[in-house]
Design goal:
The complex is a heterodimer. Chain A has a 3-stranded antiparallel beta sheet with strand order 3-5-4. Chain A has a two-stranded antiparallel sheet with strand order 1-2. Chain A is mostly helical. The longest helix of chain A has 27 residues. Chain A has 9 helices and 5 strands. Chain A starts with 17 loop residues before the first helix and ends in a 27-residue tail after the last helix. Chain B is α+β, with helices and mostly antiparallel strands. Helix content of chain B is about 25%, strand content about 15%. Chain B contains 16 helices and 20 strands. The longest helix of chain B is centred in the last third of the chain and has 21 residues. The chains are: A mainly alpha, B alpha+beta. Chains A and B meet through helix 3 of A and helix 4 of B.
Chain lengths: ~375, ~625
């Protein structure tokens, strides 16, 4: 009788200690948050009441990033870390960079347009590395920040966001081998539960053991990049990549369609129903002393406050997430103010929120 | 909730004519939707006839309603919904003061008086639940035995306990936010361990401000003492799911309906314009149930198809077919006629359209009660200005109220009522905030900061207490038809004859005094004024009151214990026609002091069980007599 082959050992992970796991999970929070300013900017740049399908797709993806952010916070809390969205480096400067396999690509805050959809496609594109060795690559330009840099070695970055989460998954499994249930030493009352967080994008998962941790990681990874393949996910929902692709192709996907050919009804987009906002707008683009400049500063203060509120929610007051809903409406109103007004002297280019929080650090209510 | 794409257009009149359905349902509102869903889930083939224009329910279509609503200068509760000459709906803008002895036929609903009813109902896919407020109250146990206990009205042929399991089903289907602890008063009880699907919506700041001064107020009535308390109302809109629901399985809220996935409406945002339309579909509407029913593959639908006559086999009394008028273009009366056949037939078109159709078909029933005993809640509005800013205009239309006088021995003599605290200020009474804005700008000449302060000062302190007062059945309150009044398609229009019974007026009179007392306790300035030229003006006891309807239409095919005293039995099945069910508010023998949709939905779940039993027990479709 042939000897049965032993199961392969779990793959090695770079995450060899709780501290490194904390670094990775903080990086995950940064990563999940990073695209929210881009989605919201594009969303609010659309004329109200137009391009309903596009509006809803972008909105739902933004809401899912918020779910992912919350899941990452739950993971970090579960393993004894402390989520903090108020650090000066939490919000990226734009353009930011995400990995796209061999290269990376720019992530910008821009108006609703085909380039923006292309960018969203890249953010969502499934990207498993072809080999184990390809999973981690040296950064071509060490000076350029990359949202998928290795927290433990910033000269390197992952092949894709998907591989970044594979690393976290391996790390959690490996640390659990080492520490057992003690890995999940975090106070369970810190976990955000579905009472306080709701979104159509999926249920928030409180994390308290290996199983729930891997479910949470899987949810983040699957909803985004769908490394599992197939254009519809486990819940028969069309993966985001294809929801965006529909907009460029001009047709809806249907069940049974292959990845490159949507056969559903027409999806017509009015690409002109958009406010002409400045891409990656910064405070420096608005004339000193102008109302627009003051309003842009107001937005940044409000956003910093908002991140402070979320941080408090993630650190023992999850019920504050209900207040955060009202906060989102206020942010929307302030964003709209900027987006619908031209930059003085700019010949038809409108303002936009700048998300520059370092400058307002001193003004934020603690 | 995914709406199966293309399903509405899948069946045409030709195909429908060739099928003998297990059930033909007239109307796609909550009653029709629930029954279609239950029957199709049990494997039956169902056809729904819908008078309105119907197409796949999509988010884009819903957003069309929203932008019509936003851009409407005058916002009544039909403002989002397109007028359709071939399937007209009464609008509150139609009603006018009646001249005694004269009939007002100026709009769809012919008003014979003496009381002018401002009732509305919405003829779109999903029916009136698209515009309703979605307040969800169970009736009190004593409401089911009001004749035995108080010598008033009619007893139900079922008890609260018998209906309770169906209340549970209705609460699940609608998706109710509330706490059973708050609702266990005046005999309302729940099974051990039962919780509502979602947690209660919080009381608004306004509710709590009222509660501070009102809670604990004692009133004496008919020898009994009642202590008043502001209580949260269960709501048919999405809130925080209760993990203890369904034996710990929890509950997943159902949000917006569309043909492709959309994530909206998972939770109420407090937009305050629930009536006439929830911007995000956090509020339940029957489209959510229709989507499920139509996904079964066993439900066909024919929109733009107005049922015009129910045909009976004279020997057996059974319905053989329903004749309809189908129009192609809502703005043209051109139509084709046709018929549909089923083993059972269900009229689910509401408590005005059901009897209208029966009477137009010559079917008065043995009791002669078809169309009679029309009831609607009589609302007495009382409005005042609170001494301090109360945050009016936030939250759902109504989150809290006073329910302590919904029941009691006083019901021997006078009508019970429940009191709604309106989060939308004086809107219903005065047209606030638009009328306030007009007055502040045009009459007070304010602008700038002064205008902003005046708006806050005058609107954010508004308190409206709406007294939902019971109306008992009265045979002369009725729906009739007359060949003199036909609609665009030549169908007979409903004629409403209605008066407010004295029993109700005694409750109204008492309510007015109680409102004044409550305002005094609050230190609020009473601004209530009833204009004698108001269409709902009723004089009683030396005073006048302007009353409003609640659109809680009931009684016109009342259920009872024999063919002599009612139209339908406890299954909502016609005594006279063995394969005909008349479902919805029309079956209710009393309306108590609760919005009727939860109760009529519970009855529909019950009836669906009986229909399934009947379909199983009977094997042959009705055949027209050989004559």
């Amino acid at each position: 009788m042939p000897t049965p082959t032993p199961p392969p050992p779990p793959p090695l992970s770079r995450i060899t200690s709780r501290e490194v796991l904390h670094q990775y999970l903080y990086a995950a929070m940064q990563l999940e948050h990073a695209t929210i300013p881009t989605y919201l900017t594009t969303l609010y740049s659309m004329h109200p009441g137009t391009n309903s399908d596009a509006y809803h797709v972008i909105r739902v993806v933004a809401v899912e990033e918020m779910l992912h952010l919350t899941l990452a916070a739950n993971l970090l809390n579960a393993v004894g870390g402390k989520p903090d969205l108020t650090g000066p480096d939490f919000v990226p400067t734009f353009p930011a960079y995400l990995p796209d396999g061999e290269d990376d690509f720019e992530v910008s805050r821009q108006r609703f347009c085909k380039d923006a959809i292309d960018m969203f496609l890249k953010i969502e594109r499934p990207g498993p590395a072809p080999t184990e060795e390809d999973r981690v690559k040296p950064k071509k330009d060490k000076a350029k920040p990359n949202l998928a840099s290795l927290p433990d070695d910033p000269g390197l970055r992952f092949f894709s966001i998907g591989e970044f989460y594979v690393e976290i998954d391996r790390g959690v499994v490996a640390l659990h081998e080492q520490l057992g249930q003690a890995l999940f030493k975090g106070d369970r009352s810190l976990q955000v539960t579905p009472d306080y967080y709701y979104s159509g994008g999926g249920e928030v998962i409180p994390v308290h053991d290996l199983k729930s941790a891997r479910r949470a990681i899987n949810l983040i990874a699957e909803q985004g990049e769908g490394l599992g393949g197939g254009i519809y996910d486990d819940e028969s929902e069309l993966a985001h990549y294809f929801r965006f692709k529909q907009m460029l192709d001009g047709y809806y996907y249907q069940k049974g369609d292959s990845a490159d050919k949507p056969t559903g009804p027409e999806l017509a987009i009015d690409w002109d129903a958009v406010y002409p906002i400045k891409t990656n707008a910064g405070l420096a683009d608005f004339p000193d002393g102008s109302e627009l400049h003051a309003a842009a500063l107001d937005f940044n203060v409000l956003y910093a406050d908002f991140l402070g509120l979320i941080t408090r929610a993630f650190n023992g007051q999850p019920q504050l997430l209900i207040d955060a809903v009202a906060g989102m409406f206020r942010l929307r109103d302030k964003a709209n103010l900027l987006i619908r007004n031209p930059i003085p002297g700019s010949d038809g280019v409108n303002g936009a929120p700048t998300f520059e929080l370092a400058a307002v650090a001193g003004k934020v209510a603690s | 909730m995914i709406f199966p794409r293309g399903v509405i257009r899948r069946t045409d009149h030709q195909q429908a004519a060739e099928t003998v359905y297990d059930a033909v349902i007239v109307g796609s509102g909550i009653s029709g939707a629930i029954i279609a869903n239950e029957l199709s889930a049990a494997g039956h083939r169902v056809l729904i006839l819908e008078a309105a224009v119907g197409d796949d329910i999509t988010l884009r279509g819903y957003e069309g309603y929203l932008s019509d609503f936003y851009s409407a200068v005058s916002k009544d509760n039909q403002a989002p919904y397109p007028a359709n000459l071939n399937a007209q709906m009464p609008r509150s803008t139609d009603v006018r003061q009646l001249v005694p002895g004269a009939v007002d036929a100026s709009s769809y609903l012919v008003q014979n008086g003496p009381f002018a009813s401002d009732t509305t109902y919405t003829r779109v896919l999903g029916g009136t639940t698209v515009h309703w407020e979605a307040k969800i109250l169970r009736m009190l146990p004593e409401d089911f035995q009001i004749r035995t206990r108080y010598g008033q009205g009619q007893d139900w042929p079922v008890t609260y306990e018998q209906l309770a399991p169906y209340y549970v089903q209705a609460e699940r289907e609608i998706g109710v936010s509330g706490e059973v602890e708050d609702q266990a008063y005046l005999g309302i009880s729940f099974d051990d361990g039962y919780v509502l699907p979602m947690h209660a919506m919080p009381l608004s700041y306004l509710d709590r401000m009222v509660a501070k001064d009102v809670d604990g107020t004692e009133v004496a009535l008919d020898g009994e003492r009642y202590s008043l308390k502001v209580r949260s109302f269960p709501q048919g809109r999405n809130g925080i799911p209760n993990p203890a629901y369904d034996g710990g399985q929890g509950y997943t809220p159902v949000g917006a309906v569309s043909t492709n996935q959309v994530e909206e409406g998972g939770r109420c945002q407090g937009n305050n314009n629930c009536v006439p339309i929830c911007p995000v579909q956090a509020k339940y509407h029957a489209g959510k149930t229709l989507a499920k029913a139509l996904s079964s593959g066993r439900v066909d639908m024919l929109p733009q198809t107005v049922a015009s006559k129910v045909h009976i086999d004279t020997d057996s009394g059974r319905v053989t077919h329903i004749e309809y008028k189908a129009y192609h273009d809502p703005s043209s009366p051109e139509h084709t006629t046709g018929t549909v056949r089923g083993r059972i037939f269900v009229l689910a078109a509401n408590a005005i359209e059901n009897p209208r159709l029966m009477l137009a078909s010559g079917l008065q029933s043995t009791s002669g009660l078809v169309g009679r005993n029309l009831m609607d809640h009589a609302y007495l509005l009382n409005w005042a200005l609170l001494p301090e800013v109360a945050g009016t205009m936030r939250g759902t239309v109504c989150t809290g109220g006073i329910c302590d006088l919904r029941g009691g021995s006083f019901r021997r003599r006078q009508a019970a009522f429940s009191i709604d605290i309106h989060n939308d200020g004086w809107g219903w009474a005065t047209g606030a905030p638009d009328t306030d804005l007009e007055r502040i700008v045009d009459k007070e000449n304010r602008f700038g900061a002064s205008l902003r302060h005046a708006l806050v000062d005058q609107i954010s302190r508004q308190l409206l207490l709406a007294f939902q007062t019971e109306v008992p059945p009265s045979e002369s309150n009725r729906i009739t038809v007359d060949p003199a009044f036909t609609d665009n398609l030549g169908n007979l229009r409903p004629i409403i004859s209605y008066h407010i019974p004295e029993y109700t007026m005694r409750g109204v009179e008492y309510g007015r005094r109680l409102a004044q007392r409550i305002f005094a306790r609050l230190g609020a300035e009473d601004h209530t004024f009833y204009d004698p030229s108001d269409y709902g003006y009723v004089s009683y006891g030396g005073a006048g009151y302007a009353l409003r309807g609640g659109n809680h239409l009931a009684g016109t095919h009342m259920m009872g214990t024999s063919p002599g005293n009612s139209v339908v039995d406890e299954r909502q099945r016609s005594w006279d026609h063995q394969n005909l069910y008349l479902v919805g508010g029309g079956s209710l023998p009393s309306i108590g002091t609760s919005n009727i949709t939860l109760t009529l939905s519970a009855l529909c779940f019950k009836s669906a069980r009986h229909m399934i039993d009947q379909l199983r027990d009977e094997t042959a479709p009705a055949r027209a007599s050989a004559a």
